[in-house]
Design goal:
The chain is of the alpha/beta class and 328 residues long. It has a domain of 222 residues: Aldolase class I (TIM Barrel), CATH 3.20.20.70. The chain contains 10 helices and 12 strands. The model has no long low-confidence stretch (mean pLDDT 95). It binds S-adenosylmethionine and iron/sulfur cluster. The site of S-adenosylmethionine has 22 residues, from strand 3 and strand 5.
């Protein structure tokens, strides 16, 4: 088992395959998008597969493909097929905004994808447009239907934003009545590509929980799976569950089992660090697998204890990069 310097197992890689996206969510990037990475700056699929092989050899057994929007990168399905063939990899999960995903669901099922996180911050079409700056809610709902029809586990990610979608907390949670979905409310983080951000989110996990408890006073705490970032609850009688991810409050650092590789191949051992190793440059300098492994192990041995320490170590570099460039 791969352990960090705080004795935490590391077995989960979040790999961002692109920074590009077909939505422009307020909390993630500016209206005009980001300064997109050039193709040469991005890791190639071959480089990603090489890294995955090395990391899986070291003890990673779960990989989440994210971005940007993973499905806007060409040939993603071919890459997923190759990835699924790596021995030792037990799970591939995906995070998607669902805009172009629905027609690909049968193929995802064939590849062996068992769980997908779908981002959905509101059930109201006009509000969806205001938040994402695109009118794509029907496509996202079609993806949710297709995933459920194919028995793929659906986790809904909803970022809670003051003045924007707090009225959606209850309607989104009500989806769990008949649908076997896990709806997880996420504290907004400052990773928005440089727009203004309050020092702390006005809606933290306690306020989200209060809102749920006001509607359902008999909300039951249920056990959280190992390494879970969400605090999980059951509304009695509902088919699905609700959860809260205290992404800004950072309540889960003590059991953090995850690392990230950004679209440009930078290793992050904490969401809040500023990148600890440029794997792309090392690979392009011609390092062999054994030398890359040494660099990786050294980085895992210098992991920050928690997101507060990681943020502190940025020495004034503000936390304002986009989630799309770090693998949310
Ligand atoms: N495009 C895909 C999607 O939206 O599902 C995958 C990438 S997106 C960066 C991954 C997750 O990060 C999404 O669920 C999104 O809601 C979340 N996210 C993005 N910016 C965030 C922020 N500033 N605070 C909290 N969550 C954020
Ligand atoms: Fe795109 Fe996902 Fe960021 Fe929204 S959260 S802009 S869908 S990368």
């Amino acid at each position: 088992m791969l352990l960090d310097n705080h004795n935490r197992p590391i077995n989960y890689l979040r790999l961002a395959v692109t920074d590009r996206c077909n939505l422009r969510c307020h909390y993630c990037m500016p209206e005009h998008g980001l300064q997109w990475l050039s193709r040469a700056d991005l890791l190639s699929y071959e480089e990603m597969l090489r890294l995955c092989r090395i990391l899986i050899g070291l003890g990673i057994n779960k990989v989440r493909i994210t971005g940007g929007e993973p499905f806007v990168r060409k040939d993603l399905m071919k890459f997923l097929t190759e990835l699924s063939r790596i021995e030792g990899l037990q799970q591939i999960n995906l995070t998607t905004n669902g805009v172009v995903t629905a027609p690909l669901v049968p193929e995802l099922k064939k590849i062996g994808i068992r769980s997908v996180n779908l981002s959905l911050d509101t059930l109201d079409r006009e509000r969806f447009f205001q938040i994402t700056r695109r009118d794509e809610l029907p496509q996202v709902m079609a993806t949710m239907d297709a995933l459920l029809q194919h028995d793929i586990v659906v986790k809904i990610n909803a970022v809670v934003m003051d003045g924007q979608n707090t009225d959606d907390i209850v309607p989104l949670a009500k989806m769990t009545k008949d649908l076997p979905v896990d709806v997880r409310f996420i504290e907004e983080m400052p990773f928005n590509g440089g727009d203004h951000f309050n020092a702390r989110p006005l809606w933290d996990y306690t306020r989200i929980l209060d809102t749920l408890r006001q509607e359902w006073p008999d909300l039951e705490k249920i056990p959280d799976p190992p390494f879970s970032t969400s605090m999980n609850y059951q509304i009695p009688g509902h088919a699905g569950t609700v959860g809260i991810i205290a992404a800004w409050s950072r309540t889960f650092c003590g059991t953090c089992n995850r690392i990230r590789v950004t679209p440009q191949g930078v290793l992050k051992t904490c969401l809040y660090d500023h990148g600890v190793l440029n794997l792309r440059d090392l690979m392009r300098e011609g390092l062999c697998d054994a030398a890359l492994t040494d660099h990786l192990l050294l980085a895992f041995n210098h992991r920050h204890k928690n997101g507060w320490d990681a943020e502190e170590a940025r020495r004034g570099v503000p936390v304002e990069e986009s989630m799309a460039t770090i693998g949310g």
